[in-house]
# Entry
Amino acid sequence: MVKIGKAGKNIFLVLLAALFFLPVFMTVGMSFLDNNMPTFQNYADLLFDCFVFYPVFWNSVLYAAVITIIGLLVIIPAAFGFSHAKFKGKGALFIFYIILMMMPLQVTILPNYIGLRDLGLINTRLGIILPACFSPFGVVVMSRYMQSINNSVIEAMRMETNSVIKIIFHAVIPQIRICIFAVVLFVFADCWNMLEQPLLFLRDINLQTLPVFLSNTEKYAGSVLFPAAVLFMFPVLLLYNFFSDSLEKGLTFGDLS
Amino acid sequence: MKKLISTVIIVFLTLSLLSSCNNDKGNKDIINYDFHDVKINFTADDDDFLYEMEKDRPILFAIDNNGYLYYNELTQNFMKVTVLGLDGEKIDEAEIEPIGVWESGEFIPYPNGAESFNCIAVKDNVLYFTDSHPFTRDSTAVFSYNFNTKEQVKIAEIEGFNDVRKIIPLDGKLYLLGIDERLSQNINPAKNNYKGESIISVALQTGEHETVFDNMPFMMAETEDGVLIISAYAENGGYYFKKLNSENIIPNDNLNFSNSEEPNFEMYGSENIIHDSDKFLVFLPVDGNSETRVIVNNLPSINRKNFAVKSGYLFYETGSGVRRIKLSEEVNPAVLNMAHYSVLPPIIENFGFGLTFEQIDTYELSLSLLSLDSNYDMYNINSFSDISDNIRQKGAFYPLNDVPYVNEYLNAVFPYVREAAINEDGDIWMLPIYLHTNGLLYNEKICEEYDIDIAQLNTSEDLIEILATLKSRDITEYYDITHPQFFFERSFYQIMRKNNEFNRDDFREMALYIYDNINYIKDDWSYNRITSDTNPYPLIQVPGSVNRVADLRGRYLLYRRGVGDYHMQESFNRALEYEDYDDDYFWANLGKVDFRYFENYKHNRFILYPSVKAVEGIHVNDVTLEFITVNPHSENLDVVLEYISALAEYQLNLENSFILHDEKTYSMDRHFVKDAYEILNYEGNFIRFSLDSELIYSDFEKFLGDEITLDEYLNRAEFKINAYLRE
Amino acid sequence: MKPTKKSRIPWNIKCLFCLVPSLVGITIFFVIPYFRVLYYSLIDNQFRRNFVWLDNYVKTIQNEYFQLAFKNSLLLILIAVPALILSSLSISLMLSFGLKKLRVLRTAFVLPLVIPTASAALIWATFFANVDNVLPVYLLFIWKNIGICIILMTAAFTCIDDSVFEAAKLDGAKRFTIHRKITIPLIMPTLIFSILISIVSSFKVFKETYLYYGGTNYPPQYSYTLQYYMNNNFLKLDYQSLAASAVFTSLLVFVIVIIGLLLQRRYTW
# Structure
C-alpha cells in the first residue's frame, strides 16, 4: 500500500512537471514553425534581419543585472538594519514598507512619471534602474530571514571589529545565502518582465527592453516573436540553474516520504 | 551541457552588446552650423527693394558677394547680361555670344533663344553658365564670361549630362548639378523624386571634368565659409546632407518639413529654405537642429528656380522685376510637436511652421494628459477613440475662443460639427479638420438597367428586397460587399441614439431581428457573409482588401465606401501602379479632389448607408471627426495658437472641403461631390465620440455564430456598455 | 574582553545607517508618489485642481463597478492565494522529502516564471477557450507563481536541521504528523512571506489576465478586478477614481498585513 502510494505520488509529480513543461515546449516548438513547416527561418529572420533585437536584448540584461546588483547593495544593509537596529517605530516603518510594496502599478505609474520627469530621468536608463533598485520588496523579505539567523556569530564578530560592513559580509551573508539567491532570482525575473515602465518612460527604441519588443505585434511579424520569446527565457533559466546547485546542497535529510 | 549553454549565452550577450554600441554612435556627431549673417552691409535704405526691369522674357539672375545683381535676358540668339548695384543702378552689362548648338565644331545658333539655358552663377565678376543641346539633350557645354576682360570662354563640354540646375564656382573648380543620362535610367519614382542627378566638377583651367558625387543628390549649396554641401536621397527613404569629400553630416530621415513627398526646399549655404504654400518661408539648419525661423510675408508665389538668398536678403522674381527683401530673424524658433493617435500620420499642411509628428497610443496619451506634460504641443485625435470625449469633459484642453479665424471657421462648418466643437461652458475645445462617414456606392447605370429604385434604400429590409429582386432575375454576377460588422454596428449605434444609453429591449429587438432575417455565415476563410432570405443570396466578400472589386471592372451594384476619406489617396496611388486597374476611388484631400478618374465613372453615385432596421424618427448617422486639441501646458503656446489660426484660416478658404457648410464652395456639377455633400449635410448627422465598437459588436458576433445565447449576449453588452459609461 | 578598536559610533546607530540608502530611495521613488496619489484623491479633476476632500472616496465606494472590482480582487486573494500556498507546499514537501531524483523536477515548476506574458496568455487562452468562469484565471495565477513559492519553501526546508527529523523518527512519529507539527511551523516565516509575495503577485497577474481575454478592457464580469477598474479610469482621464481606489486598496492591504503579523506572533518563539 505504501509502495503504491509512493509510486503514485512520484508519477503524479512527474505528470505535473510535464504539464508545466508543456507550454515552454509549445513556445519552443512554435518558434521553429513557419506555416506549419519546421524551419530555422524564424531564427534567421530574428538574428540577422531584425537589428532592433540586439540592443533591446542587451538592455533587458543590463537593466536586470544592474538593478539586481545595486538592489542587493541597498537591500542587504537595509534588511540588516531592520533586523538588528532598535528604534522606535520600527514596526510601523516596516508595515509602511509592506504597504508601499503592494501598490499596484496602475496607480504608481502616473506619480512615478511625474517624479521622474521632474528629475529629468525620462528617456534615460537611470529612470528605469533607480526606482526598481529601491523596491521595498527585497527589504521586507530579507529582513524576515535575517531575524532568524544565528546571532551568536554576529556577537563573536563584534568582539573583533566594529565595522558593520565586515560583519554583514562575513557573518550575515553566508547564513542567508539562500534567501539572497531567492531574492536575486525574483528581482531579476521581475525586472526581466518589466513592460509598462519602459513602454511609458522610454522613448528611444535603443533603450527599450525585450518585453516591449515582444508586445509590439503590429510592427514585427509573429514569426520573429516566437524565437524572441524563446531567447527571452534563457537568461532567467540560466540564473536559476546557477543557484539551484546551492539549493541542492542543503538537502541532506533522508527519505521521509 | 551547462557549460555549453553558458558559453552560447555569453557569446550572444557579447554580440548584442557590440551591436547595440554601434547604434548609439550615429547620433552623436552633429555639427552645428550657425547662420552666418551679413557679410556685406547692404546699404540700401529700404528693407524692401525692387529692381525694376522691363522684361517680357524670362530672366535668370544671380547675386555675387558684393550684392550685385547679375541678370540676363534671353534674347534671340544671344544673351544680354546686366549687372545692377545695390541701389539698382547699372554697373555693367555684356552681350554674350550667341547661344546655340555646337555641332561638329560648328556653332549653330538656336533660333528661339536659349530656353535650354538653365542657370547661371557668378563669382569674382565672372559669370558661369551652361547650355544643353536643345534637341538631343545629351551634352552640356559650360561657359564663362569674364566681366573684367570681357572674354567668353567655353570651358568644357560634358557628354551625357544635361538639365543643369545649379552651378557653384569653388576653389578653381565649377560644380554642376545636373541630370546624368546613365543614372536617369534607373530611377524609381515610387521611392523618391530622384531624377538621375549627379554632381560633376569641372576644372576651370583645363576643362577636365569628373563626377564627384552620384549617390542620389538633388541639391547643393555653398556655405559662407566655402564648403560645398549636398543634399541627397537616402537609400531607405528620407534624405540627408553631406559635405563634399568628407563624412556624412547626419542622416536625417525624420526631418519633416512638410507632408509633400518631394523635399520642397532650397539650400542656401548651410540652411534650408522651405517655402510652403507660398505664404511662409522657413529656415532650417542643415544638421536638423531646427532653430526654425518663420518669416511671415505675403509673398506671391515664388518660382523655385528663380530666387536667391544671400547675406540675409531674399531675392525673387516678380512680374515687374526682381525684388529684394530683408529677412527678419525675430520670429519664433519653436518646432511644434503634434501627437497623433492613429497609425497614419495626419495629412495636415504646416504652413511653414516646423511640425513634427509622433504617434502615440492610448496609454501614452492618457499619461501625457494626466501628467500635464509639455512634451506635445497639440494632439491630433479621431473622435471614435476612447479618449476624445474625456478630454472635453475633464477640461484637458486650451480653449480656442480667442484665436483669430476659429470662430469664423466654426460658423462656416456643418452645424453638427460646430456643436461638437463647443462644450457646455461655451469653450471651443478643438479645431475640426476632417469628416468621415460611410456611404453606399451604387452603379446608377446598372440600377437603371435592371429597374431598381435605389433611392428608396433606407434599411436592410430594402436592401434585401433589392437583392431578392436581383436574384429573381438571375442577376448573380453583382456582389454586394457589405461588411457585416459595419452594417450591424451601425444599427446598434442607431438605437443607442445620441445619448449612448443601453436599452435592453431595444438591443434585444435588434439582435433578434438580425439573427432571424439575415443569414450570417462564418466562412472557412473568415470571409463573413450576410445573406437574405431563406434562399441565401450570397453576399460574398471578395478576397483581398475589403473594398476592392478585383475582377469586376466598374460593374458592381452596391459597394460600401467612405465619404470624405482622405486615406484613400494612398490606395489610389497604389492603384496607379496597375495601369488597367479601373476601380474608382474617391477622396478628398483638403481641397484637392482629383476628378480626373471620376469622369470615367459618371454612373457611380453615393447615398447614405442603410441601417439594418427602421428606427422611429430620423435615422441618426454617425460621423467621425478628426480634430486637433491644444495642450494647455505646451511650452510654445503662442506659436501653437498662431498655427491654429493659420490652419483655421486655411480651412475657411477651401473648396470641396467636405467640412464647410456653404454649398457654393463645392463643385456641385460633379455628381460625386454633390452626393457626398448631401450625405454630410444630412439632418440626422452627429459626431459620435468615444464609443468603442468592441463594446457593441464583439459579443454580438458570437451570438450570431451561436456561440452564446441571446441573454448572455445582452448581459455582456449591458455590463460592458454600462461599465464604460459609469465606471 | 574589550574590542581592540574603540569606535566612537555606537552599534545601534551603525545599524541604523544601514537603512539610509533604502530609506532615501524609498522616499524619492515610493513615498512621494504615494503622497501624490493621496493628494490626487482629494481633488476633483487633474486639470482644475479644486479640493473636494472626501467626495471622491464616497463616489468611489458607491460606484457599483468599484464594488464589483473590489469583490473580485478580494476573491482572488482569498481563494487563489491559499490555493497557491497549499499546492506549492505539498509539491515542495513531495520534492524535498521524496526521491532525490525528483528534485530536478523543481526546474519544471520554475518555468512559468520565465515565459513571457504574451506567450503564457496565448497558451492559456488556447487551452481554456471554452471555459466560462473565473477558474482559468486562478489557475493561471497559481501556475505562474508556484515556482517562486516552491523555491522559497524548498530553500527553507534546507535550513531545518536534520537532527530534528531524526529525533522525530525515533519518537515514532508518522510522516504526516512530522510535517504538520514540525516542518511547517519551522518554516512559518517563509510561509508568511510566501503569502505576502503571492498577494503582491495577485495584483500583477492583471497583465496576463488582460491578454488572456484578448486585450479587451471589459472582461467577463467575474474577472473584472480592481486593476481593470483602475486601468479604464486611467484611460478615461479620471485619475480621481483611481487614486481613491488605490487608497482603499492600501487600506485593505494594511488590514491583511496586520492580520498576518498577528498570526505570525503566535508562531514565533
